[in-house]
Amino acid sequence: MTSSMMIFYLLAALLVLSSLMVVFQRNVVHCAMALVAALFLIAILFVTLQAAMVGVLQILVYAGAIMVLFLFVIMLLNPTALEPRRGLSWGFGMLVALLLAGALAALVSHNEAPADPFAATELFGAPESLAKSLFTDFVLPFEIASVLLLIAIVGAVVLAKREHN
Amino acid sequence: MVPLNHYLILSAAIFAIGVVGVVIRRNLIVVLMSIELMLNAVNLTFIAFSRFLGSMEGQVVVFFVMAVAAAEAVVGLAIIISVFRHRQSLDPQEMQLLKW
Amino acid sequence: MTDVNLVPLLPATQVLLTALVVLLLDLFYQEGEKGLLAWVSLLGLALCAGETLFLWGSQESAFGDAVMLDNFALFFTQIFLGAAALTILSSVHYIRQAEIHEGEFYALVLFATTGMILMAAAKDLIVFFLALETMSIAVYILTGIWRASGRSSEAAMKYFLMGAFATGFLLYGIALIYGATGSTHLNEISNYLIESPEDWPPYLIGGALLLLVGFAFKVGAVPFHFWVPDVYEGAPTPVTGFMSVAVKAAAFAAWARILMHQLAPLDSDWAFPLWVLAIITMTLGNLLAISQASVKRMLAYSSIAHAGYLLVALVVGEEWGGLPLLFYLLTYAFMAFGAFAVITALAETEQSPEDYRDFSGLGFKHPFLGMAMTLFMLSLAGFPPLAGFAGKFYVFRSAVLSGHLALAIIGVLNSLLSVIYYLRVIVAMYMEEGGAEGKSFRQAPYLYIAIGLAALGTLYLGILPARALEWSRVAFLSLD
Asked: Of B49, B80, B82, which has the smallest distance from its Cβ to C175's Cβ?
């Protein structure tokens, strides 16, 4: 077993563990913390896949911005009560999980992956090449994404703003 | 080098865990977190394929998925706040229309 | 990349600019004098409609074939524009009464329309995905925009969670298709499918099936329908009309372009699941609609059933199903929108008036509303010579001609079943005593205009469908 394999298995085990904690912890704040850990681990996995720039964005955008928003809302609403356990639906949930995981794993695992992937150049995954794709081939989606963010801003204001009266 | 397969199975597992969270949790904020987890699993699939196909496209897509996830989180949390104002609860079972 | 062709984006840009203008103008007017905003929105939509007529017949692509402006896109753009315009007309009075912020409401309708227009034109899965999200997020907000109503917020929550959940599946599907074909571009994907037939990795099929699940969620097909009744019930009624007409049309537009046309080589893999989906969607939608006490919920289930009839056209496939699909969506737009607009026209009491008994006696008290609702109900049930009959006729005819006799028979039987609950509304309006209250013409003139337009459309498409059929045919043939 090579060192890269060992690193992968370590990251994968931690990722699965933290994802399970997101779903099965009863305290919301603990869930949020586990999610931060999961997002961080995914960012590291991105780096091992030569997507350093995306990994950095992952930490900045997800762990930095989105998770802070989550924690902010948790503090604002302060839902102290722990969720009641529901025996039946937890069992049902596990069943769904196993079935879905099995189906997905079966779907993705039959492929004959190229043993030696494309020798990536140094530029692969670098900010330059990402930016170049973004502003040439993908300039239209980029503009649509800006509209999307504008809508989200308008929506957040309309839905969450306190009325004056 | 870790084979592509491993990454795909890992992200399938994370996706499935996210789905379970959506199905069983009774706290709207955690349900939203589980959806974020699902999107992240998909991102991992994209990045893995991008590396093994040698195409930057997958990485750019992840950039857009992050933008979408951010927009969804903002709107979702705003809706959660407005629901909370009416019901003082985050448990879907205590609401009229949200039961499932 | 020196010369960028912006023509294919013209309709979407027009609507987007209108939305931005409305959003900005909103800042300069006080509450109570914002009537102008509706007119600005309608003007923008009318300009865009003019552009679509002018551009009819063009076949332009841009941004490396990421969007395609063909008759197919233009046909759907016209449906979206019509639905948006009718929604705005029918909500002028409603949102003032419910104290919904006018500027944001109109702007969000326009933003959603922008997303829909791009969805119908998208030739790249990423453009499609972002356009879908643009539409969906705007509609989530519209669903919850009536802040005084707890039901509106809850409906928005449910819609949002189910929508985001479906987005996850859709995106996973896109990821697997990208992995298998090496591209998100539909032309390259279909080239790959044609050039290397049958030599596909299993996750390509998996990706296509996940995409199918995502779409089934969006159109509300059984068994992914459970959010539909609650969301339709809780949303402000004009928004419900917009959802049932425009959002559904947009989802079917993308479905037709992406799955039915571009990924056609994968047909054999989803033909059977789709066949099952069509049958259970029609049947369950109709059976559940019968037992509802609320007309709004009944219409929600009936919209599920209509999604089932539309799925029949998708099962039938490109060769026969294209024209009926487009024509049916056009006819459905008028009749479904009209039905929801009549509910909007019922007077507000403490509870939202949407039960059958809120309709009792309406036919005598408000003859126009009664007549219009009768027309829409008969059309939805599929009585000739109304639009609904023509739509169903061509869908079931295509099923028979392409050899899907069982589907056609089940469809017709379902259609007969649906008569029960549509007639119940008419019976309540004309044969039951009751104190139905409606808004008078003087109270809500624009709403009456919207209902009138929808009724005219329903009659016109039923009696003289030839021109619309020709449009649908030309539109579907323009897919390349």
From this structure: B49
CB contact under 8 A, C126 and A138: yes
A153 with B9: Cβ contact below 8 A: no
Q: Count how many domains chain B has.
A: 1
Q: How far apart are CA A35 and CA A23, in angstroms?
A: 9
- The answer, for C23 touching chain A at a CB cutoff of 8 Å, is yes
The dihedral over CA atoms of C174, C179, C185, C190, expressed in degrees to the nearest 10, equals -100
Q: Which chain A residue lies closest to B53 (C-alpha atoms)? A: A118
Task: Give a three-class secondary structure readout of C44-81.
Answer: HHHHHHHHHHHHCCCCEEECCCCEEECHHHHHHHHHHH
Identify the H or E element spanning C117.
helix C102-121
Indicate whether A25 pLDDT > 90. no
**CB–CB of C422/C301 below 8 Å?**
no
Number of neighbours of residue C57 by Cβ within 10 angstroms: 10
Q: Is residue B73 part of a domain?
A: yes
Whether residue B70 and residue A61 make contact (CB cut-off 8 A), yes or no, is yes
Q: Which of C260, C129, C255 is nearest to C190 (CA)?
A: C260
Q: Residues of B at the C interface (Cβ-Cβ below 8 Å)?
A: 8, 15, 18-19, 22, 28, 31-32, 35, 38-39, 41-42, 45-46, 48-49, 53, 55, 57-58, 60-61, 64-65, 68, 71-72, 75-76, 79-80, 82-83, 85-87, 92, 95-98, 100
* Inter-CA distances, C90 with A102, C237, C437, Å: 49, 10, 18
Each residue of C334-350: b (16+ CB within 10 Å) or e?
A: bbbbbbbbbbbbbeeee
Distance separating alpha carbons of residues C128 and C175, to the nearest angstrom: 13
What's the rounded Cα separation, in Å, for the pair B11 and B47?
Answer: 11
CA distance C225 to C214: 12
The answer on pLDDT for C15 being more than 80 is yes
β-partners of residue C60 are C69
The CA distance from C45 to C15, in Å, is: 6
Residue whose structure tokens are 């704040």: A29
ipTM for this prediction:
0.95
Does the residue B100 lie in any domain? no
Q: What is the CATH number of the domain that holds B75?
A: 1.10.287.3510
Confidence at residue A111, expressed as pLDDT on a 0 to 100 scale: 56
pLDDT band for C351, please (50, 70, 90 cuts). low
Report pLDDT digits (tens) over C131-189: 999 999 999 999 999 888 888 899 999 999 999 999 999 999 999 999 988 899 999 99
Cβ atoms of C253 and C333 closer than 8 Å: no
In angstroms, the CA C312 to CA C321 distance is: 8
For chain A, list the contacting chains (3+ Cβ pairs, <8 Å): B, C
The ranges assigned to domains in chain C are 7-477
The dihedral region occupied by C4, where left means phi > 0, alpha psi between -120 and 50, and beta the remainder, is beta
- Amino acid identity, residue B42? V
C289 in Cβ contact with C420 (< 8 Å): no
- Per the domain annotation, does B66 fall within a domain? yes
Contact B42 C157 (CB under 8 A): no
- A144 shares contact with chain C (CB less than 8 Å): yes
Each residue of B74-100: pLDDT tens digit? 999 999 999 888 877 777 777 766 655
Q: Which residues of A touch B54 (CB under 8 A)?
A: 117-118, 120, 124
Neighbouring C-alpha atoms within 13 Å toward the C-beta of C458: 31
Range of the domain at B29: 4-94
Q: Quick check: is B45 in a domain? A: yes
Say how far residue C428 (Cα) sits from the centre of its chain: 28
Q: Tell me if C108 and A108 make a contact (CB, 8 A cut-off).
A: no
